[in-house]
Write a structure and sequence with these properties.
Elements: E1 5-10, E2 16-22, E3 27-33, E4 51-53, E5 56-58, H1 66-81, E6 89-95, H2 103-129
Parallel strand pairs: 3-6
Antiparallel strand pairs: 1-2, 2-6, 4-5
């Protein structure tokens, strides 16, 4: 696995995003969120207690995005383990705080906008120097 990078980066003092990327060029980004709905608010069952009712489980974070994240990680792992050549980029982004203020995604987008502006400035500088 070449050019692989995985690192948590802070989106605030208390919240972390997880970002992993492999390959170069155009990139397929698979994104999900790690947080669960707040415990405050109306609940039909106690939020911190797993309750099974008529074959259905209820509880804070019981379903949400866990299956989606597991599927994304599994798909990326299976592809990378297959030995197939990666022609473009593949990235996984798991953000925090999606259920409340989207601080994780906001941080990620601000970082991307900064990088895009930086690379455009470098490109423009090179064009001027030619």
């Amino acid at each position: 696995m070449t050019n692989a990078h995985c690192a948590p980066f802070p989106s605030s003092e208390e919240i972390l995003n997880v970002f992993a990327q492999i390959g170069q060029g155009e990139t397929l980004l698979l994104c999900g969120h790690l947080d669960v709905v707040p415990a405050q608010g109306p609940w039909s069952t106690p939020p911190f207690e797993l309750v099974k009712r008529e074959g259905v489980y209820f509880g804070r974070g019981c379903a949400d995005m866990k299956g989606g994240i597991a599927a994304m990680v599994s798909a990326a792992h299976r592809f990378l383990s297959s030995g197939e050549y990666l022609k473009k980029g593949l990235a996984l982004l798991f953000v925090a705080d999606e259920e409340k203020d989207n601080l994780g995604m906001r941080h990620f987008l601000r970082q991307q906008i900064f990088l895009i502006a930086f690379f455009q400035a470098v490109r423009l500088f090179r064009m001027i120097r030619l």
